[in-house]
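Support reply, case 0932

Customer input (verbatim):
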Amino acid sequence: MVKAILTLGGLGLLFGIFLGVAYRKFAVEKDPKAEEVLAVLPGANCGACGFPGCSGLAEAIAKGEAPANACKAGGASLAEIVAQVMGVEASAEDAKVARLMCRGGEEKAVRRAKYVGLTDCRSAKTVGSGGKACTFGCLGLGNCVRACPFGAMSMGADGLPVINPEICTGCGVCVETCPQGVLSLVPAQNRVFVACSSTAPGREVRKTCQVGCIACRICERTCEHDAIHVENNLAKIDYSKCTNCGRCAEKCPQKIIINETAATDDKQATAI
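Our regenerated output:
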């Protein structure tokens, strides 16, 4: 009995010494600077920065492989904090928000069939674009809403996602999730945008949607700043030139150019 106890005790001691040596030899040393950066990151692990979670981004920033403003979710304020931790200057970058480039909701877009299947946009896209006649429009099954890590999106009564710009961080997760490409990141200060993604000829657009771009070029002729042009049957805004004047939105016969500044003013006036 005593011999067995001594044998087991000796083996335990040997294993303990072995594990201790192995731990010291193979231990991965943590960069204290990376730990400091990780402590101030939001911990959302949304992946918008392109790294595997906040810990991966923290390590990249500590090694100088990513800038202090790499965290899309944190915005400019967090970039300043990270820059202070790293002892560098935060580079200025315009904040962005997601915009839905489609207005073809239930009452506006023509349906050629009723989609019955998985509540998933990618699945619906493979089955006749979910029954919509316009193959460019939002499928309305909410992949983007479910993917948003910050709860900045919800589904509207018209079957289209609604984005809350006050909550949206511009992380871009919804943009990557959308199989139709109808979500885009736009500079937050630019309140005018084209809410259509169709590049079909105008005559086809009229048959499939009441609020699609028909490439009439009225917006192009109206803009005094040369900020909007029709390319491949679709109006596109050059945000480096756009002044948010909203004249293109006023003149658009299809009402697919949205002026959020005017919309906000109207809501405030109604509330008063």
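We compared this against your earlier run and they match. Two observations from our side: The first strand starts at residue 96 and ends at 100. The radius of gyration is 26 Å. Please reopen the case if you see a mismatch on your end.
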